[in-house]
TrEMBL record:
<dbReference type="GO" id="GO:0016879">
    <property type="term" value="F:ligase activity, forming carbon-nitrogen bonds"/>
</dbReference>
<dbReference type="GO" id="GO:0005737">
    <property type="term" value="C:cytoplasm"/>
</dbReference>
<dbReference type="GO" id="GO:0005524">
    <property type="term" value="F:ATP binding"/>
</dbReference>
<dbReference type="InterPro" id="IPR013815">
    <property type="entry name" value="ATP_grasp_subdomain_1"/>
</dbReference>
<dbReference type="GO" id="GO:0046872">
    <property type="term" value="F:metal ion binding"/>
</dbReference>
<protein>
    <submittedName>
        <fullName>RimK-like protein</fullName>
        <ecNumber>6.3.2.-</ecNumber>
    </submittedName>
</protein>
<dbReference type="InterPro" id="IPR011761">
    <property type="entry name" value="ATP-grasp"/>
</dbReference>
<keyword id="KW-0547">Nucleotide-binding</keyword>
<dbReference type="Pfam" id="PF08443">
    <property type="entry name" value="RimK"/>
</dbReference>
<keyword id="KW-0436">Ligase</keyword>
<keyword id="KW-0067">ATP-binding</keyword>
<feature type="domain" description="ATP-grasp">
    <location>
        <begin position="107"/>
        <end position="292"/>
    </location>
</feature>
<dbReference type="InterPro" id="IPR013651">
    <property type="entry name" value="ATP-grasp_RimK-type"/>
</dbReference>
């Protein structure tokens, strides 16, 4: 009998729909899957080795998949790194998640790899930000260091707005993170990548009355996987080390140049794809990669490629197999 590799997703139930689709496919193709909340994972470290427990029983994962962010990021990072040190393959490792969710590390890695990104300034000093924005020109966009779905983003249009923004920062360690505004028709494209390969892309348009393309209530449409967009997104995912990534790309209307806003390391897609009447193919492709990586991590990293990509005009209906599964 062929061993069913156990893939443990470390995360909570905030993205339950995505986890359900992922686990359905893992089980369909011969793997075993389980989600463990960071609060429920117990780790024993002794001279003899490292063991993992949950619910009073020992857990023997063949691979850990990190899906932790915000409140559980630091705890989950410690657990994922402990697993890696114990010799367990980890997809989206502790450092990958940190680099994906920390805006300033994201920017540093993208610029270091020569990815078309944006100049950014982060810190707390008010006068430095005032002079930097005046020199580069308005408008500017400010984002929280760690956030999602457009929460906390603001547009700074003059020096007074800059000074108000700095004054409103919470006591240390909160800092500003500021970059130039890109005129892109209030839209961007999220490219979903598995093992640094583009699988699908969705164009996101800001809801009426705002310029934030990933805000709730905005428009969504399937995007063409243009070669230049794919290549840029794949290089960005690789720069951050994200084996599952959502790369946000925009095209500057003034110059036609592409810019990567950021690389997300816990990207959701089920709700969007179902809204479009499509199967969430990025998650089913992710399942195939995880099963392959659980069996032979190095081999999967070198040779696994997506079997399906999603493009406009291709209709992929939700599969009846993806119904009810206990996570």
């Amino acid at each position: 009998m062929v061993h069913a590799p156990l893939i443990v997703l470390l995360g909570n139930d905030d993205d339950d729909d995505d986890h359900r689709v992922l686990f359905d496919e893992i089980r369909r193709i011969g793997g075993a899957a389980r989600r463990v909340h960071p609060d429920e994972l117990v780790i024993e470290v002794t001279a003899e080795g490292t063991r993992f427990h949950t619910g009073g029983a020992e857990l023997r994962p063949d691979l850990l998949f990190g899906w932790v962010y915000e409140d559980y990021l630091v705890l989950g990072m410690n657990q994922l790194e402990t697993a890696r040190l114990a010799g367990i393959p980890v997809v989206n490792s502790a450092m990958t998640l940190w680099q994906g969710q920390s805006k300033y590390l994201n920017s540093a890695l993208l610029h270091r790899a020569g990815i078309a990104h944006l100049p950014v300034l982060w810190g707390r000093d008010e006068e430095t930000l005032v002079s930097w924005t005046a020199r580069r020109g308005y408008p500017m966009v400010t984002k929280p260091m760690m956030s999602s779905r457009g929460r906390g983003m603001a547009c700074l249009t003059d020096e007074a707005a800059v000074r108000r923004h700095v004054a409103a920062l919470d006591p240390a360690p909160e800092q500003y993170y500021v970059q130039p505004f890109v005129p892109a028709g209030h839209r961007d494209t999220r490219v979903l990548c598995v093992n640094h390969r583009a699988v699908a892309a969705v164009t996101r348009t800001a809801p009426p009355g705002t310029w934030i393309s990933n805000a709730p209530g905005g428009g969504r449409s399937l995007a063409e996987l243009d070669r230049d967009v794919c290549e840029l997104a794949e290089r960005a995912a690789e720069a951050v080390g994200a084996l599952f990534a959502g790369v946000d790309v925009a095209r500057d209307e003034r110059t036609g140049d592409l810019r990567v806003y950021e690389v997300n390391t816990c990207p959701t897609c089920t709700a969007t794809f179902r809204e479009l009447g499509l199967d969430p193919v990025p998650l089913t492709e992710l399942a195939a990669f995880l099963v392959a990586a659980a069996r032979d991590f190095d081999e999967a990293r070198r040779h696994w490629r997506p079997s399906v990509t999603v493009r406009p005009g291709l209709t992929v209906r939700p599969d009846s197999r993806s119904s009810s599964t206990t996570i």
